[in-house]
Amino acid sequence: MTGLPGKLPARDFEEIRLAEALERGRCPVCDARQEASYAALRGLAREGATDRGLRDQMDRGLGFCQSHSVGLSRMELQQTSSQLATAVLLDAVLRRRLATFKKLAGNDAAAQARGLAELADSRCPVCARIAESSRTTARRLLELSADTAWSAALGSAEICLDDLCSLWALAAAGPKESQQRWSIIVSAQLRRLEALQKTLADYAHNSTHDRRHLITPEQQEAGAASIRFFGGSPDRDRQR
Ligand SMILES: [Zn+2]
Ligand SMILES: [Zn+2]
């Protein structure tokens, strides 16, 4: 990312983190989601097994989605070199699921289908924290866009496709003033994406065997930037 007008004014830790994400060329909403995910997993790995409130919630159907079951075990392994807390938590989820399955198995097909549809939502506490973080970050970024430095930074930031759309939708649903603020950012984003698309097309054009030597570093970077645009950033497999 280029063209950031120096340090962004930040009033608290959250804003400092958002400013840093923008300055590092990361999508600030993806960055906030990843922070929320790590914070939730760290907390669960540390205290989840002894957290009475959490165990009660599990007895009422709280579980972990696929990616956060694995995420929890990895986080715990990194922090404590063991996976005992994960085992305690997964045991609690499994008990609950088993009881539900046993009940379902004795029901007729229609009730089974209904029960299974309900179970499709794992009611993962980490996913809930991530969703909450997405919402609060989007609101905060729209507030910050009243500042010209933040507005300029958001216009040139590598906001990913999903978050660009969700910020846009939030701004469009907001008051006129926030719609106007966002339209300036959107114009800048569209210029950024147009430039990206052109460079990406040049890169793609040079992809044939006889043209590969013509690929420039800028074209190569456009390839990486387009993957970040569609796939989000930072890297999903970052560990910490
Ligand atoms: Zn994003
Ligand atoms: Zn989850």
Note the total helix count.
Answer: 11
Structural class, from helix and strand content? Answer: mainly alpha
Helix-strand pattern: HHHHHHHHHHH
In the residues, how many domains can be counted?
Answer: 2
> What is the radius of gyration computed over CA atoms, rounded to a whole number of angstroms?
22 Å
Q: How many extended strands?
A: 0
Ligands, deduplicated? zinc ion
Strand content: under 5%
Q: Which consecutive residue ranges, at least 5 long each, have pLDDT under 50?
A: 1-5
State the share of residues found in helices, binned by percent: over 70%
Q: How would a textbook summarize the main sheet?
A: none
Rounded average pLDDT: 91
Q: Which word captures the global form?
A: globular
* Quaternary: single chain
Distance between the termini: 24 Å
Please characterize this protein's 3D structure.
By secondary structure, this protein is mainly alpha-helical. It has two domains: 10-137, no CATH class; 145-232, no CATH class. 72% of the residues lie in helices and 0% in strands. It has helices spanning 13-23, 28-47, 52-59, 66-80, 84-105, 109-119, 125-144, 148-156, 161-173, 176-205, 217-231. Helix 2 packs across helix 4 and helix 9 runs antiparallel to helix 10 (176-205). Residues 1-5 have low confidence and may be disordered. The site of one zinc ion has 7 residues, from helix 2 and helix 9.
